[in-house]
Automatic annotation (TrEMBL), chain A:
One of its GO terms (molecular function) is metal ion binding. The gene is ccoG. PROSITE patterns: 4FE4S_FER_1, 4FE4S_FER_2. The lineage of its organism: Bacteria, Pseudomonadati, Pseudomonadota, Alphaproteobacteria, Hyphomicrobiales. GO terms for cellular component: plasma membrane. It comes from the Bacteria. Residues 265-295 form the 4Fe-4S ferredoxin-type domain. This is Cytochrome c oxidase accessory protein CcoG. It comes from Mesorhizobium intechi. The keyword Zinc-finger does not apply.
Amino acid sequence: MLDNTQIERLEAEAVNSAKVRQPLYAARKKVFPKRATGSFRQFKWLVMAITLGIYYLTPWLRWDRGPFAPDQAVLLDLANRRFYFFFIEIWPQEFYYVAALLVMAGVGLFLITSTVGRAWCGYTCPQTVWVDLFLVVERAIEGDRNARIKLDAGPWTARKLVLRISKHAIWLVIGAVTGGAWIFYFADAPTLARELFTGTAAPIAYITVAVLTATTYTFGGLMREQVCTYMCPWPRIQAAMLDEHSLTVTYNDWRGEPRSRHAKKVLAAGQPVGDCVDCNACVAVCPMGIDIRDGQQLECITCALCIDACDSVMDKLGREHGLISYATLSDYNANMMLATAGGATSVNPSLIRTADGPFSDKVAHFHIRKIFRPRTYVYMGIWSLIGLGLLYSLLTRDRLEVNVLHDRNPQFVTLSDGSIRNGYTVKLLNMIPEPRTIVVTLQGLEGAEMSVVGIDLPAGRSVPISVEPDRLKMLKVFVRQPAGQIQGTAQTFKFRAEDKASFESDEYTATFNAPEIAR
Amino acid sequence: MSNEHIDEVSGVSTTGHEWDGIRELNNPLPRWWIWTFYFTIVWAIGYTIFYPAWPMLSSATSGLLGYSSRNDVKNELAAAELAKGKYVAAIQSKTVSEIAADDALREFAVAAGGAAFKVNCVQCHGSGAQGSKGFPNLNDDDWLWGGKADQIQQTITHGIRFASDPDTRMSEMPAFGDIITPEQIAQVSAYVASLSGKVQDASLIEPGAKVFAENCVACHGDKAKGNRDLGAPDLTDAIWLYGSGEAAIAAQVRAPKHGVMPAWVGRLGETKVKELAVYVHSLGGGE
């Protein structure tokens, strides 16, 4: 007989033992969103039409700027470094307007998010809009949710092959149109379109279209909710902007629970029953494939389609809308306290209703007033201040500028008659698309005269310069002051540039240097 | 790892690591994410096949595409040369005055000449061509040998007092310390200084004028305006190569200093010299 009591038993376990092993990666669970109908769906169709319309059509709008500038309403002319937006033309050094617009967009996002939650994600984010568009195609070809699930699970028949090929083909066409529209913002749209189809456009145009076709197809058709959940930083950031008065899509479990599929049976048994009949309509329509009844979660883009789905079920049951609704956390908490009688573990539906059915007066409902609170006032204020500042600056900005750079080496030159000469690089900026004659004049610096290299005029105090439309003209200017009139080693004076036709002008204060002892 | 820990709230197992009660959830990655990792590996392998990558004993694998950053530089330089070609050809075939009259050509020549100036001329004339004592300022309107573009070109081409070039600009002022008396030197210096400024002892001016008439007018002219053919400076203006004032003038009369400038055509070639001439002409004093 073997005596195994002598053998010590060791505490050890294989690192990969079956009970601790878990997968390193998870396969994507396919989502087959069902078509929803209702007011939010209507609103989303409208937003989709507007945003897609803006995106695809804007480059084709024309705007007459005269013979010296392009007639495309919105054009980012990178080659010439000019940016056109309807009546506004921006030079690269005025790019702070774009920076200010981005700041406004940021503050606007704070404002929107603090009032109506992740509305950007749910309605206007390109990912959401294009996924919606791709789903329209998918539904049109393969049918609604159940048909798609069946098709997906079924064998590869000829029909399935045809449906799949046509779906992906249309997706690719949408992708190509999307990528194609993008490049029209950077060149004259009709010309570029002609070049694109005749194969004479620049290689970068084709590369851009190809890349954007691929990303649109991949993100909108293949990856969909994966982009929002795993790739996008917004869900993490936007959650931090919400507060207890922000509207979010909420499952109101204070009236929904206890949920039951057999309400009558449960009621007959004397158990409480909530409004939720556990029909899963909210889950079926969700493009993110989540269950809103699990509470607010990162994946929820607040597209509100579950509200539409639930409301139509409530209609059939003859109950009030809003089992799933836009609600604030504070209202939700108040109603939850009411339904649980101040903190019980389970919800009692009778506590929120009067004896004959409707909600009791104590149930909190959202009021538009809640949007107006100090936080939103501050956002609104900052947003409008930046906007007004931008507008003011835009309306009063100079379209004629003069910049002067004093020669540093040598700072001055003594000429044979004892007079002192200083050299300057003068830049005239004609920022309108019309040729102009700009008169450059010396102000101050008594007795001094200037001559401009390349302009055959006798030295004087005023020189007319013709500047091409929408261009900068660089001049080499020599200013000479007679020996007897020099006052000090550094005199300040002004270069004044004036358009005699429009009376627009600009000045630049420059310095005139002279040696210590000028005779 | 032996005891699997499940997070109560999310129902997800944790990695077993704990920091002050905070545990890390062990959520699996999405599978497509793993695919992107595999894709980067495939991409990296492809990259090492197509581009230079693997170090060998004396060089590296050159890659199927034959890419080389040195070739890129070579091509870019060749393209730049090609782009310059039409300007260089025009500069070769035109005179400096014609170049200076053509806006685009002048701009190119000024840029090219400026670059050549920074390498070859700044040692004596200074980085701003402002000169210093004994080295002329090229910005001003006082020219010893002429300030027209072609005269400047001639000076740069053959140099000044540059013995090995037979066409060099040549002039030599005698050392008057051996010819006239120290008293006469003081007188003539006072006279010359008086032409453009004040002198301490006005009584020296008149005898000085006589000394000047006897000894200096041959080169400097009877009005002391100088002579560009001889490189004789104008003595009436405000610009003094070796300093102003009676003492500096007397020193130059007694034992004159003569600067030497090399002939540049042999070293830089005719095109560069033309560009330099246009550049110097553009500095503000060109005639």
